[in-house]
Amino acid sequence: MPPTPPTPMQPVPATLFCASRGMQRVLELAARVAPTRATVLISGETGTGKELIAKLIHRQSPRRDHPMVACHCGACPDTLLESELFGHERGAFTGATQPRAGLFERADASTLLIDEVGDIPKPAQAKLLRVIQERRFSRLGATYSQEADVRIVATTHRDLLKMALKGNFREDLFYRLNVFPIHVPPLRERREDIAPLAQHFVEAAARHNRCRQSGVSDEAMAVLISYHWPGNVRQLQSVLERALLLSGGETITERLLPDEIASGFVPPQKGESATSLSYAQRLMVARALHEQHWNFSKAATQLGISVHMLRQITQRLQLRRAD
Q1: Nearest to 104 by CA among 65, 146, 50
Q2: Which fold has domain 188-316?
Q3: Domains in the chain: boundaries
């Protein structure tokens, strides 16, 4: 019989369709490294979509016919993490009444996602380094080793190099993981992506909750674009699902957004479009001043400009502090 053809490569998910150059570069790097066996380290703030990039790399790799296996290090106690990754033999420790395969065995011929690799304790770091170097591992309590045909993709929100220099993470492991680094930028650095992501999340939430789909008003969209999104894409998704449920099928306005997001909202001036660049700039500056209680030094830092420039912009836009 002829060999079964491999599963076709999967398309990029809608949550990763991007207008920003930063995310386009991320997708380019993911596509370039996917066909290889190289270890990948994906960094970025919490909620930026690191795991989605890892899944995309797996779906575009020759290993896509096997399910990707994930280890969420932050959710696993340190005492159990080694057993979770490498498995154990009967009697390896108290309570190990039966042998158990670890994630490296389950990920054979596939991809192992090590989520938040910076949370791995030092003893497990040494064993992970051995797997990467020798492509072999041993179950806890075993007297033999096994081959590891596993592609490793790791994610982190930490600065692993800084941790390594402080002695909190093995430096040799960092360089082994950092063969092909990909950094996912935070949402505040790719505001061009907010509008298409917002539309996608509203449509997805409507399908999930079986409710009538509503649009987002221009004013509400301007508020979303001007917000700094500390929780990144994950926070945007939650905010829009809540707003959709509150809207009753009507258009989502700025009044349906949480106070911390709608604070500092200024309506468009007479004759000014809510989608204009001038309004977006005015709203962004007004929000920064409001959030920093009109402390020009802190607001300028938030906006990434000088205090002198901020004062000039404030005068030009005729922004005034509310009583």
Answers
A1: 146
A2: Helicase, Ruva Protein; domain 3 (1.10.8)
A3: 14-185, 188-316
What's the pLDDT at 97? 74
Cα dihedral across residues 139, 145, 149, 153: positive or negative:
positive
CB 177 within 8 A of CB 38: no
Whole-structure pTM over 0.70, yes or no? yes
For residue 208, the Cα-to-chain-centroid distance in whole angstroms is: 22
pLDDT surpassing 60 at residue 82: yes
- What stretches of the chain show up as alpha helix (H) in DSSP? 21-33, 50-59, 78-86, 103-106, 122-134, 160-165, 171-177, 194-209, 218-226, 232-247, 259-262, 277-291, 296-303, 307-316
More confident residue, 149 or 5: 149
Q: Are 303 and 288 in contact (CB under 8 A)?
A: yes
Residue 62 vs residues 58, 190, 203: alpha-carbon distances, Å: 8, 31, 32
Place of tokens 């030092």: 122
Residue (of 198, 233, 239, 226) closest to 299 by Cα position: 226
Class of domain 14-185: alpha beta
Torsions phi, psi for 5 (to 5 deg): -65, 150
Taking 60 as the threshold, does the pLDDT of residue 3 lie above it? no
Q: Is 216 helix (H, G, I), strand (E, B) or coil?
A: strand
The answer for residues whose C-beta is within 8 angstroms of residue 178's C-beta and 6 or more apart is: 41, 160, 161
What percent of the chain has pLDDT above 70?
A: 89
pLDDT at residue 8, rounded to an integer: 55
What is the four-CA torsion angle of 276, 278, 284, 288, rounded to 10 degrees? Answer: -160
Q: Residue 270: its pLDDT value, please?
A: 64
Q: Give the per-residue SS3 of 104-117.
A: HHHCCCEEEEEECH
* CB proximity list for 167: less than 8 A, separation 6 or greater: none
The two tokens of residue 95 are 């309570």
Q: Could you read off the pLDDT of 274-283 as tens digits, one per residue?
A: 566 677 777 7
